[in-house]
Write a structure and sequence with these properties.
The complex is a heterodimer of chains A (about 575) and B (about 250). Chain A is an alpha+beta fold. Helix content of chain A is about 20%, strand content about 40%. In chain B, the strands form two sheets. In chain B, strands 7-6-5-2-8 form a five-stranded antiparallel β-sheet. In chain B, strands 3-4 form a two-stranded antiparallel ribbon. The two termini of chain B are about 45 Å apart. The chains are: A alpha+beta (about 575), B alpha+beta (about 250). Strand 31 of chain A pairs antiparallel with strand 1 (about 50) of chain B, so a sheet runs across the interface.
């Protein structure tokens, strides 16, 4: 901008239209010295250099021409139209600004090259290439990556140094070392080259999706022919050091198919064989046997999880020992992995080992395959038998020495119905329980009544005595009314009673004798006198018939008398 | 009358065809031949007839053991042990089968009450206890009646003491009958039949696992939920929920 006071401040660019691979120079030129230069932001560009300051001050014919320039070197980030913004400067107290300038960035343009520039020659005659064996592998499928440096016949490779080994993130990788660089012949892009294998590695992708291999950087020295000739006319060679980087490659990793994927798939991919062996198969308790699981073949052997198995608690299993015998080449890992379990049986018996399955994804048929182990059985011939339902081996190291063999079947049995009626809580249970208890009061009642009866001794006794008396007087009672027969029968009855009670023969009986014996037997005097009077009336009645009334009263008297006598 | 005889004959012929003893002999014959599946079928048909015995369960357990079916063999050995608790062959073969189970769970030491229960209450079955109670009540009533009716003082004294002792024995045995009934109700042993399962903290399949269990393990059922889940106790006292289809009650 040319101000009235003669101060000019303007922007100049080297070109307003440029390819994305070209560079741009921006100059901010002023004709007066100013302060507080503020450049615009170049955030649409990479700042390659600057600000470079240059000042020219000249006096021509007494006229001073002054110019101060700030230079910037930029390279565009993207294609498109961009604006270089305003820069400002302060000259003698006033702020001057430049005009913004529009820059158009087009696609890359073929840069005119100097064919004699040795660096250009070097770049044209070599190429670093990463070769992938398979850009579209399955998860855990081996991929080899080989870095080859192609060098044309025109230049010589004089030195090589790997700056940066590539990092293989998301891969299990093994770099296959190169002992000696060897130059081989090969064609690349229809051109014959010498090439050197710089680095090679086997990769096992550990993640699905698009994975990027970071590039390899090399520092190389090349001898490039120059334009100069030596005194013999031959071209002189010039050594050029270049840093080359292989373009980064991406690998699209396919997931393993879900169809037919076994449960607990351990991730083995390749071609495998699996076996399980045990030795010895016959042993004594306390001795050890080995169970060996072996997976051999090609595939991600170092990465695979060996199948596991569980044994009965009476077989003590120790931590397994894993042995690997694997060769890794560009085509992947091959060899075998062995897991060795040491098992010590504690008790005798026959132990079938569980069937172990090894599942893998077969790359040839692109399907899952499963190999099952043979069924193995371990026979422990000698040793104690596990006695407790569950015996803790570590606690009880000397189990009961019951060395009985497994028993065969039993031949004798007595069957009974499975459903037996429950006696407890059944009706009969409660009846059996309560009826005897109910019997108790009945028994008590009965006893009480009997006691009451026996307490009334006279009543109880007289009852039977009356019966006896009436038995004696049966004949007499039938003769009631016939005075003579009645008194004869009455007298006989009395004598019979006395005979049985006093145990004396009838012939020995007379009234005096009877009274005497009765008195000796401590009979009541009233009873004795009653007896005598009754016997007397019996005698009188033989001669004088008596009335029915006196017969009745005599009968009653006799009965009472007999009862009284029976108490003797 | 003819009809009745005919019916009886028919029933008799039916009984002889399916006679448990014949089936048992048949099963044993198959067992000797090594035809364990047919032996199992023969033994099983005895159970289908509603008959059982400790020896039958023992032979069933043996046939399953020979077939390497651990859970059923332990199941039937335990059944045999219930009916023949002192049979050494049963205990011996059960230990052989237990050798093959995967779980190694140390049982909890028996508490004082458990050992007391084992020493006294579990010596008799529930029905035996019930019958003992009835016998005691009869003895008590009879000796008391004798005491009441007898005259001699020695007899009276003896029968009185007998009545008192019998009454005390009746009280004890009746208490133990009910106690045994309670014990039996709460003692529901079962054998895990699933090859592998786990106890979880809640009756659903999302909750945390308590412990893994494998076939052949003896557990005790504590309670049911929703008829699909059961809370079980392991020999070491751990408890957890498991699908009731995973085990079979003894």
């Amino acid at each position: 901008m040319l101000a009235q006071d003669g101060v000019s401040f303007e922007t100049k660019v080297s070109k307003q239209e440029l390819g994305i691979n070209e560079r741009l120079r921006v100059d901010f030129i002023m004709n007066e010295d100013g302060d507080n230069f503020v450049p615009p932001s170049f955030d649409q560009f990479h700042l390659l250099g600057g600000p470079n300051q240059s000042i020219s001050n000249s006096w021509i014919n007494g006229v001073r021409s002054y110019s101060k320039t700030y230079s910037y070197f930029l390279s565009p980030k993207n294609k498109g139209v961009f604006t270089i913004g305003q820069a400002s400067i302060e000259v003698a107290g006033s702020v001057y600004k430049t005009q913004p300038i529009k820059i158009t960035v087009t696609a890359a343009v073929e840069q005119p090259k100097d064919p004699n520039d040795p660096e250009y020659v070097a770049d044209q005659n070599m190429e670093l290439v990463a070769e992938l064996s398979n850009p579209n592998p399955y998860l855990n499928e081996a991929v080899s990556v080989v870095y080859k440096l192609y060098v044309s016949d025109d230049v010589y490779l004089s030195g090589l140094n790997i700056l940066d080994q590539p990092k293989y993130n998301n891969f299990w990788s093994q770099i296959i070392p190169i002992n000696k660089l060897e130059i081989e012949r090969g064609t690349y892009k229809n051109r014959s080259y010498n090439y050197v294998v710089v680095s090679r590695a086997v990769l096992y992708p550990q993640k699905e999706g698009q994975l990027t291999i970071e590039p390899l950087s090399l520092d190389i020295s090349l001898e490039v022919p120059s334009q100069q000739r030596n005194m013999f006319g031959g071209f002189l060679r010039q050594t050029v050091r270049r840093t080359v980087t292989a373009p980064s490659r991406t690998i699209q990793v396919k997931p393993l198919p879900e169809v037919g994927k076994p449960e607990n798939f351990s991730g083995a991919v390749g071609t495998f064989d699996f076996s399980m062996t045990a030795s010895p198969e016959v042993l004594k308790a306390g001795e050890a046997f080995q169970v060996k699981l072996k997976v051999s073949g090609k595939g991600n052997l170092k990465l695979l999880k060996m199948p596991e198995f569980q044994l009965p608690s009476s077989l003590e299993m120790y931590e397994p020992e894993r042995k690997e015998n694997i060769n890794t080449s560009l085509t992947g890992m091959s060899g075998d992995v062995t897991v060795n379990y040491t098992v010590v049986p504690a008790f005798r018996g026959e132990y079938p080992l569980p069937e172990v399955h090894f599942d893998y994804f077969d790359l040839a048929s692109k399907s899952y395959k499963s190999i099952s182990s043979e069924t193995l059985a371990i026979e422990v011939t000698e040793g104690p038998v596990n006695n407790g339902a569950v015996s803790n081996f570590s606690e009880d190291k000397t189990p009961k020495s019951n060395t009985k063999a497994f028993s065969g079947f039993k031949t004798q049995t007595a069957f009974q119905p499975i459903v037996t009626p429950n006696f407890f809580n059944s009706k009969s249970f409660w009846l059996w329980l309560f009826i005897p208890l109910l019997m108790l009061p009945i028994v008590l009642l009965f006893k009480r009544r009997r006691e009451a009866l026996s307490a009334d001794v006279v009543g109880a006794k007289s009852k039977s005595d009356w019966k006896m008396a009436h038995r004696y007087l049966k004949e007499a009672s039938s003769a009631l009314g016939d005075s003579k027969r009645f008194y004869e029968a009455l007298e006989r009855a009395l004598y019979n009673v006395l005979k049985s009670k006093l145990k004396v023969p009838i012939t020995a009986l007379n009234k005096e004798g009877i009274s005497q014996i009765l008195a000796e037997k401590k009979c009541k005097p009233t009873t004795i006198s009653e007896l005598n009077s009754l016997l007397q009336s019996c005698e009188f009645a033989r001669y004088t018939p008596s009335a029915l009334e006196s017969m009745n009263s005599d009968y009653e008297k006799a009965a009472v008398l007999i009862v009284e006598l029976s108490k003797i | 009358m003819k009809k009745v005889i005919f019916c009886l004959l028919f029933l008799a012929s039916f009984l002889t065809v399916g006679q448990p003893n014949d089936l048992f002999e048949k099963g044993n014959a198959y067992y000797i031949e090594g035809n364990y599946q047919k032996a199992i079928d023969a033994y099983q048909s005895i159970l289908d007839l509603g008959q059982h015995s400790g020896e039958l369960y023992f032979n069933l357990g043996n046939a399953y053991y020979k077939q390497e079916a651990i859970a059923p063999s332990i199941f039937y050995y335990e059944k045999a042990k219930q009916m023949l608790p002192k049979d050494e062959e049963v205990i011996n073969n059960l230990s052989y089968a237990n050798n093959r189970t995967i779980d190694n769970i140390a049982p909890m030491p028996a508490s004082f009450w458990d050992s007391l229960n084992d020493a006294i209450v579990n010596k008799l079955t529930l029905n035996q206890w019930a019958k003992l109670s009835v016998a005691m009540v009869l003895l008590c009533v009879l000796s008391f009646s004798f005491f009441i009716w007898s005259d001699g003082s020695v007899r009276k004294r003896f029968s009185f003491i007998l009545a008192i002792v019998a009454m005390f024995a009746f009280g004890v045995s009746l208490t133990l009958t009910f106690h045994k009934n309670n014990l039996d109700k709460n003692n529901r042993p079962a054998i895990i039949f699933d090859r592998q399962n786990s106890l979880s903290t809640e009756p659903n399949s999302l909750s945390d696992k308590v412990i893994d269990v494998h076939e052949g393990l003896k557990v005790f059922v504590l309670e049911y939920y929703d008829s699909e889940w059961a809370k079980v106790e392991l020999p070491d006292g751990k408890t957890g929920w498991i699908k009731s289809s995973a085990f079979r009650l003894l």
